[in-house]
Specification:
11 helices, 59% helix, 4 strands, 10% strand, 4-stranded antiparallel β-sheet, elongated
């Protein structure tokens, strides 16, 4: 009884022993108090759900389809499932393993066999044949006294949480890409409309120049110049038509579908944009961006690997037990009195000389932990840069759009005056031609400026880790002890 109590106490002590290695503590990160291009305030545009940002039902439908069908997102979800399975696989080592075994067959020994034979060892005896049957249950358990398995489980849980954050990053990137592609498609639609209107205007000028030439008011040069400008605009129309189809194909692939047409919603210049974009506090970016969370989980995993490697320096303690029946007679197999067997064994394996392998393993894990730390810090710096770049990009895009619109108005006045002078016969057609080209270019640039402003807004929303899911993310704590949750369907 004393031995059993002592054994039970030893096992209990081993089961609650502390794990080796450093416990994770979040690194101290110094972030700026304000953004370079915006004042610091608590609210942020990233709290607005994506369907409220542009208020375009067609865009919302396209995003919904992408979230359900996009192949990259499906791959990210499957990686979560793989990480979840790996976590369960590693965690299973914490528990005893029970196996059932059964054996049945015959054995034939020769008279001169060196192996012990049932019935005696005399070499002059002839061959001996016998049957053997066995059935039993075995138990094996490595007692995680030094925390090797617990640290490995901790690392796998952190990698699981990292894969879940990676899926959120894929969602944010996907919705940003879909939104940007849709805006670019509507921008191309608008530029194509401008080109077609200009083409119609050029056709009218070709007819006007031909009539004036035939009536002797101008030379044939004006007519041919008008024809050349008409063909130049026609080339631009063909090019824009090509770009529209290619952009539709790009968007179709993002939706996980075969190349096809894309339904249109509001015109690009009718999509609402906020006059001011609150960016929130720089310190909040660490809590919002999923790529930062993913990098931190990888750091947690690397930190846990150090403890796993250190535990390899210490003994491995294991218990094995078995109970069953062994008999040479099938009829007596289940008779405990004659066939019952049992074993209870304890084992200890202590590394003595491995030519420094275990020490080098610790050095490897410590180096990988430092690499993960630098990656985590780099991810935060990159996130801060992306937000600041997006803020200045959005502000300058708005300023450029204002200037482009004023330029368009000025170019229209120039064309009106040049057209009037040409029709009155006081100016050559070259003035009209230059004014047409300048207005056409200005209108295309103005349309592109509208698209650039919307693109800059999308990039800012993405850089801030915007609320693409439409729901606030669940509260998270920086550690690998949280219970993993299933990915959304």
């Amino acid at each position: 009884m004393r031995r059993r109590v002592a054994l039970f106490s030893l096992v209990s002590l081993m089961a609650v022993a502390c794990a080796l290695g450093p416990d994770y503590k979040r690194p101290t990160i110094v972030t700026p108090e304000t953004w370079r291009e915006a004042a610091a305030e608590a609210r942020t545009i990233a709290d607005i759900p994506w369907w409220e940002l542009f208020q375009d039902e067609r865009l919302s439908e396209v995003i919904t389809i992408a979230l359900a069908e996009n192949k990259d997102l499906k791959i990210a979800v499957e990686r979560i499932e793989e990480a979840r399975a790996r976590y369960g696989f590693t965690k299973a080592d914490l528990f005893p393993k029970v196996d059932l075994s059964a054996t049945g067959g015959g054995i034939r020994f020769s008279g001169g066999s060196l192996t012990h034979t049932p019935g005696g060892d005399r070499p002059d005896r002839g061959p001996i044949e016998t049957e053997i049957y066995a059935v039993g249950t075995g138990l094996s358990w490595e007692i995680d006294f030094f925390g090797r398995i617990r640290r490995a489980t901790e690392a796998q849980l952190a990698l699981l949480l990292s894969s879940e954050e990676a899926r959120r990053s894929v969602v944010i990137t996907l919705v940003a890409d879909v939104s940007q592609a849709y805006v670019e498609l509507r921008d191309l639609d608008r530029r194509l409309g401008i080109a077609r209107r200009t083409l119609q205007s050029n056709r009218e000028y070709v007819e006007l120049a031909r009539l004036r030439f035939e009536n002797g008011y101008t030379s044939e040069l004006d007519w041919r110049q008008a024809e050349a400008e008409f063909q130049r605009t026609q080339v631009k129309v063909h090019d824009l038509e090509r770009l529209v189809v290619q952009k539709e194909n790009e968007l179709s692939v993002l939706l996980g579908r075969n190349p096809a047409g894309i339904p249109r919603g509001r015109p690009v210049d009718a999509l609402p944009v906020p006059p001011e974009v609150p960016a929130g506090l720089p310190s909040e970016l660490i809590e919002r961006r999923p790529d930062i969370w993913a990098a931190e989980q990888r750091l947690i995993a690397a930190n846990a690997r150090i403890g796993e490697a250190k535990a390899m320096l210490f003994p491995r303690i294991s218990l094995t037990a078995s109970v069953g029946y062994t008999s040479t007679d099938l009829d007596d197999l289940l008779d405990w009195g004659s066939s019952g067997t049992w074993t209870v064994l304890g084992g200890l394996t202590q590394p003595i000389f491995h030519a420094g392998q275990n020490l080098r393993r610790i050095e490897v894990t410590e180096s990988r932990q430092r690499q993960s730390l630098y990656e985590y810090e780099r991810t935060i710096l990159q996130a801060l840069r992306e937000v600041d770049d997006s803020l200045v990009g959005y502000r300058k895009a708005r300023e450029q759009l204002v200037s482009q619109r004023e330029r368009v108005e000025a170019e229209r006045k120039v064309l009106e005056l040049a057209d009037l002078r040409y029709r009155e016969g006081v100016a050559a057609y070259l003035e009209v031609l230059d004014a047409q080209r300048s207005l056409f270019g200005a209108e295309l640039d103005e349309a592109q400026a509208v698209g650039d402003q919307l693109t800059a807004l999308i990039q800012l929303y993405k850089a801030l880790g915007g609320g693409w899911s439409g729901e606030p993310p669940p509260p998270r704590t920086p550690g690998a002890t949280a219970t993993p949750v299933a990915p959304p369907a």
